[in-house]
Amino acid sequence: MREALIVSRKFSLEESHTLAVAQEHGAYKTLKKLQNLSPLEVIKIIKESGLRGKGGGGAPAGNKWALMPQESEKPSFLAVNCDESEPGTFKDRQIITKDPHLLIEGILLTCYAIKAIHAYVYIRGEYYQYQQVLQVAVDEANAAGLLGDVKITLHRGAGAYICGEKSALLESMEGKRGHPRLKPKQPEPEWYFGNPTLVNNVETIASVPFILEHGAEAYRSYGTERSPGTLLFAMSGHVERPGVYEAEFGVPMMEYINHFGGGVKNGKKLKAVIPGGASTGVLTAKEAEEVLLDYESLRAMGVSLGTGGMIVMDEETSMVAVLKNLLEFYHEESCGQCTPCREGTGWVDKLVGKILDGRGSSADIDELLEIAETMNGKTICVFAPAVSAVIVSFLTRFRDEFEAAL
Amino acid sequence: MMVQVIVDGKNYEAEEGSLLIDLLIKEQIKVPYFCYHEALGADGNCRMCMVEIAGQKRPQIACDTLVKPDMEVSSKSEKIEKVHTDILELELINHPVDCPTCDQAGECSLQDFYMDYGLHESKVRIEEKVKHDKHVDLGANVMLDQERCVLCARCTRFTDKITHTHELGIIGRGDEAKVSTMPGRKLHNPYAMNLVDICPVGALTSKDFRFKQRVWFLETANSVCHGCAKGCNIYIDHHKIKYEDDMIYRFRPRRNDAVNGFFICDAGRLSYKLLQNNRQTMIRHKDEIISEEKSIALYQSLLKQYKNSITVVIDANLYNEEIEALVDYAQRIGAEVCAPLECYDDTEFADTMLKSAKRAANYEKVVKMGLDRTMPKTSGLIINFNHTETFYAEMQIDFSTHQRPNASFILPIAAYSEQSGSLTNEDGLVQMCEKAVHKNSPSPTLREWLQKVGL
Fold first, then answer.
1. ipTM of this complex
2. Do A339 and B150 touch (CB under 8 A)?
3. Which residues of chain B neighbour A379 with C-beta distances below 8 Å?
4. N or C: which end of chain A has fewer CB within 10 A?
5. What is the CATH number of domain A319-404?
6. What is the pLDDT of residues A137-180, one digit of tens each?
7. Where are the domains positioned within chain A?
């Protein structure tokens, strides 16, 4: 597998989080390039690079940037989403602890392109120690005069998963309860206190310096036609070497797991893989053998790439227990705004709990699928549809295990 | 611009860009909803008002759908009915189903929708349901039952958008979410009891009304609040229990966009108590209860005795028709007329929402008719028509709805809820009040008394 280090290039360096080491290895060099580029030209390059949002959705980043007004009476803002709360996902914290200056550089480039005066990094509350590393880096960069007119503020979340949803994140930043907002009727920026705001994931922003330094084509030389570039894929669960390893899109999943992760732990057989964070569904071992790690290939399998945080499960794993574990999480984390999600997540958790305890009946399995149907596509945000997809994905692929538990 | 919309195969007209749910409500096309309220706007959380829209893959909520030209909407297809049923079932899985002891029963959206879309057996046993507090005293006469709540957030939006007092919020997540005030804080605003009306279910109930009467026994009449000159439209809900008298149980706001919108103030809402309590029911002279016949003779002899020195005092809460009849009557008996208003000016009561500083229902009528608004000048005889002030005269006759402890000659009259009539509000709008209460032994109305004492 060919090496593809775009975001994690400096991760292995000693003291990589310090400004001195970062600058020694080229940090903030791209800022000079801005002298010969207009904001719109920067957006054009990002569009050409095909950079896709790396927070899970995979929407083209350039299109989102283009929604930001270049002429506006209101101030524009950038909100960097570091509310990394998806089970199985732990890539952003690598960036903010191992190369925080790459993120800051990306923030400066992005703010230039969208004419933002102030960038917020919304960090989940549990990342307190990582936030401190980033804060030191921001202070260092500021002291070195690198930030220019841009202000960078770190905003701590209070531990709610839903605040990773971009509109809930902004509600939370506004000091309100983190509830997702109703979707706008046409494409428009997000709004922070009524001001145009771009919300992007940490890794997306951290990919920007490479693109500006080497050009859109260089970025596109990695990955596939429709999923260009790289991702900080990650592995957890039953692998020999769990962790975050950057790779280009389109590599075969098993090749990645074997190459970086050293295969399934203790030489056991693979049973299933959750491809990209808890909410992305589940693949059987057979499917995992066939699938490639890009948005389109996983979509074709009926699951999604998400954040690329794979959870690997060996032959001894009880899929009923895994689903129960996931549903407990969703039950705890549903924000409670929409009825299907608020009530549905609790109910499915209880039903799977029943099956796990051996008190279930085949009617419960049908009931689960029916609730999943009600939870799909009827809520403000995609939380409930994701839960629905997880349930359907587990029950269709491992139905025999659920039936055996009855 | 008005455009054509097709709903369930029928053509309707609606403003382009307006909310689809407003059209459905206006045209009385049945669609279930909890969180939408015309005064509070769309919030989109209950997910009940789903409709199918041609060209859209998924069902859409009508409260967040803007009307477009030639939009084709289906509110009753088999598919959409199933969506309503399924979401309603989720709404009910943690509901305590305590309708027999719930004051909202009979006027509860959850009950109504269950009859329309549900009718399923509960799949979750009572002991598996999520438990919350059932008796939370929020303050301001509002009680909260968190288990009955459907989290529609109408109440929190009311305190955010209407009263701007922000006392209520939702705390907790998922099925642990519940409405609450901040720790140690209470609901505290003069419109708080509207929360009971806007709550679509039995979560918020009135401390004043709860456990008093089942709503299906109540009869309703349209009336106008007499708490101030604003003229807020109300419903008078009353009921006569067998062998007892017809009683008012509550006032509720009646929507009138030209006057009060959807709401009334709590002072006005609770004014039914003042109306109903301490009523004068007997004719009394000095310490003696006398017959109607005797009272009429006494009245007439007093008129003769004080001829040329009589003042008629009119209360500014009387109906238009009563005030006009009294002015006419005074003229005929050669009496002075006054309608003192100063005692009704109360700037402390007033606010910028609905509460007026003029605390008499027909204040404007008195002004319009150009009546003398000062206290009566020295007189031999004052004939007081329900004014509550104390006057000074050699002799005073009181026609009064309520008891007057020091009255020497008092004749009971029917209150506004016991007869129909009209009022002129502070903006000059003339509004009708229906007769609501039918007393077992009704006191004569003012106009009936005028007939009796001889016009």
1. 0.91
2. yes
3. 47
4. N
5. 1.20.1440.230
6. 999 999 999 999 999 999 999 999 999 999 999 999 999 999 99
7. 19-220, 230-314, 319-404
